[in-house]
Amino acid sequence: MSEARIDGRPVTLEAAVAQAAKLLAASRLPVIAGLGTDIAGARAAIALAERVGGVIDQMHSDALLRDLTVMREAGAYVTTPNEARLRGDTLLLVGPSLTETWSDLGERLVSAPLAAEIGGARRVFWLCPGKSAVPAGAKVVGRSPAELPGQLALLRACVGGRLARVPKAIAGLATALRAARFGVAVWSAAALDELTIEMLFGLIDELNPATRFTGLPLAPADNAIGVTQASGWMTGFPPRTAFGRGYPEHDPWRFGARRLIEDGEADCAVWISAYGPAQPNWRTHVPTITLTAGEPTQSAIHIQVGRPALDHDSVEHDPRTGTLVAKVASHRIDMPSVADVITRIAAALPGGAWPC
Amino acid sequence: MLTRIAGGRVIDPAHGRDAVGDVWVRDGYIVDAPPGAQADQTHDARGKVVMAGAIDIHSHIAGANTNTARLLLPEQHKASTRRPAETPLSTAGWSTFETGCRYAEMGFTTVVEPAVSPHHALHAHLELADTPIIDKAILSVLGNDDFLLGLLRQKDGPAAIRDHVAWTLQTSRALGIKCINAGGAVAFKANARSFSLDDAVPHYGVSSRAIFKALQHAVRELGVPHPLHLHCNNLGMAGNVETALATIAAAEDVPLHLAHVQFYAYGKEGERGFSSAAPRLAEAVNAAKVVTVDVGQVMFGQTVTISSDVLRQFDARHQAKPRKWVIFDGDANGGGIVPYNYRASDFYNAVQWAAGLELFLLIDDPSRVFFTTDHPNGAPFTTYPEIFALLMSRELRAEWIAKLPKEAMAATTLPSIAREYTLAEIATMTRAAPARLLGLSDRGHLGAGAVADVAVYDDGQGRARMFGSAALVFKDGELVVRNGKVTHYRFGRALTVRPDYDAAMDRRMAAYYDTRYGLADDFIKVPDFAIPRPAPFGLVPCAR
Questions:
Q1: Distance of alpha carbon B133 from alpha carbon A259, whole angstroms
Q2: DSSP string, B483-538
Q3: Do the bridges between strand B454-458 and strand B472-475 make them parallel or antiparallel, or are there none, so unpaired?
Q4: Mutate which of A233, A253, A340, A342 to test chain B, going by most B C-beta atoms within 10 A?
Q5: Closest residue of B to A119, CA-based?
Q6: CB < 8 Å to B530, chain A
Q7: Distance in angstroms (rounded) separating the CA atoms of residues B412 and B408
Q8: Are A18 and A349 in contact (CB under 8 A)?
Q9: B66 contacts in chain A (CB < 8 Å)
């Protein structure tokens, strides 16, 4: 059973849904943020945002959009975690926070055996790992994350033959990368800025005429990639997309939920976090409807929702495979999903349910 | 409910019908005229052309690569008009919702997404589930996957290959099998930069020819209606007509479908070493009765090329405009997304445009040449109406030819071709023949028992306008388009085949995924619960 509250007081789910619909209908610019939800929840949230002329944003958009910005400015070479595991004979780990983003990195990638037909041992380099625990056998080049942009620029220039005097460590790394049969650079956009990611893309591009090299950007948590995929096919754009004018518009700065709220442009928010207890990340008060798997919050309206793949069946992005995967609930309980709740809210809006 | 579409010119080549008359619909199906019956609803089709709903056999409308193209090119799909009531997200530029609406508005009611990696099948089905109005299907891509290549390397024999193909079709819920530059993506991962029909795949020692032949036979022996759908080697290269001719010869007497053959109709004649070889290719297709083709017509303007032929796309990246691209080394084929602008003033692009039209016009039998632009590779599917007009009018072609580079037109035979397609031939190419090719006996015609997918077009206002904006479209008997605009949503099904296989393959695949990937094979499955529509799949029978 779902727990629902209005202004902290326990109410029925129906009452909370009705109040949420009322708040959204009266809002001039609502944001639907967090979006820590499965594909069904994302679909429902995006359809609701269009319906109420609101904005969608995801809690990891900062990192997501760094990778996407580079892709849509310059392009990308990417592979799957499976291919990196099976064929990546040379791994270039880039920057800190990799194991925080993907706890399976060591087991599923670094220490996994290469495919039998590839043979040989994997060579692993880590450029500027910071305080991360470096796996045995990995060679560290540079240390502090602050050095990373400079180190990467040197490395690219060296690979491209544009350096007269090459630091020894960089020269060795460049030689190793050029000798890769199928090399894979691994990074987490949570820890890098756009220019660094673009430098990395440039490095990969310059390696490819002679050898094969590609990239594996690690996926942020909370189904951020899955939400981005659903947003892409439904609207053409990733999150930070607005529907206020009756059609989708995308702008990473204008339609950031936190900015809209802190600048007083948005007058109502829906915060969705079904995977964990994440709370809204803005510092200004705005009437908020929270849909979370956690404890009741101080929001105007709180509805407890089930956890995808645990409490209810789900489709979500799986960072182990880099694909959308269907998952049967492992601990099924009677708790509405984000999609269930949002569908109810949409049906309670003036005009009733719409066919989406 | 009984509906009568009254007094139109009914063109139904599957039944040799081209005459003014009525089409009757009861409860979603076409029925014979019920004697003395009174229709509950009558739609006036006088002065209009009535055809079955059109079927597109090859259009990249969904899946991971298409979605990456959307995300790569935000500047190419800004919406500018507010959506009409009751059709959410339909004017989101290049959304699944817009795709379904635009197809329906042109009278198309079934569309096949022809290149889905089995590991991404769920993603593709989710996008298709959000594509309103039309029915759809996927073709699953094999031919660069480690398991199949391993079977060939081990010489496991045709039974194992059949079981694997059937397992793939069932697991990914597909209508058929596509093979894209067989072995080429694997070779590219091993640092090859070209890959031809008889080159050996590194690590596996099998040739492209051996891979596609194995798949071609497996598909036929399983009784899958749609023959192997093959994307040949050497796409886009000058002189590659030789590859296409060799592939046609290799088909022998087993059915084979060659995709977007315009991109293989190139010779090396002339000062620039590039010419149309469409007449030679058309001649070979005319002679090889087991071979069908679709064209992949090029039209001028900005588009984006989306192909699982990652080796070819890597080669094409320097021609990207705007200058950005995604090269994706996937679990098997992967893909390349490269934006491209076909220019009328460009010699090569003009030859490509002409070569496609030559193929349409020089292949005699409209039931063996299929109408595609390889959307969006040759052009967006929204250019179809203009292409119909070009096929139907020599005069219109002459107007275009006059504006194109003379040396390009000299490298083709197009200016000398007088043929003009009739409406019946268009209906054959877009309705009757694709239904037969895909094994969809319940559509592509207007005979009793067919699903009531019907397009009604205004005649006499120019062919491009006629086909661009249907007067009425019925899907499963429900009126969904009026005056060229979708009036409301309904959601179609994904059509699938389920050929039988030895259950030992289930155990073998589970063990394979466990050993090779360290994962349960659940991650590639497409369960009903994952698709957010009631009854999301429709079953198409196999011959055995």
A1: 38
A2: TTEE-S-----EEE------THHHHHHHHHHHHHHSS-GGGG---GGGSSSSS-EE
A3: antiparallel
A4: A233
A5: B203
A6: 313, 315, 326
A7: 7
A8: no
A9: 233
Could you tell me if A356 and B95 are in contact, meaning their C-beta atoms sit under 8 angstroms apart? Answer: no
Q: Considering only CA atoms, which of B389, B434, B116, B427 is closest in space to residue B294?
A: B434
Does residue B175 contact residue B196 with C-beta atoms inside 8 Å?
no
Strand partners for B341: B302
pLDDT tens track for B480-500: 999 999 999 999 999 999 999
A residues 179-218 lying closer than 8 A (beta carbon) to B:
181-182, 208, 211-212, 214
Segment holding A68, helix H or strand E:
helix A61-73
H or E element that contains B35: none
Q: Look up tokens 């996008």; give the residue.
A: B127
Structure tokens at B12: 């139904």
**Helices assigned H by DSSP within B137-207:** 146-153, 158-172, 184-189
Structure tokens, A80: 């799957």
- The closest of B15, B53, B48 to B477, measured between CA atoms, is B53
What pTM, to 2 d.p., does this model score? Answer: 0.98
Tens digit of pLDDT for each residue in B131-161?
999 999 999 999 999 999 999 999 999 999 9
CA distance A79 to A218: 11
Gap between the Cα atoms of A92 and A317, Å rounded: 24
For B61, B78, B325, the CA distances from B87, given in Å and listed in that order, are 19, 18, 32
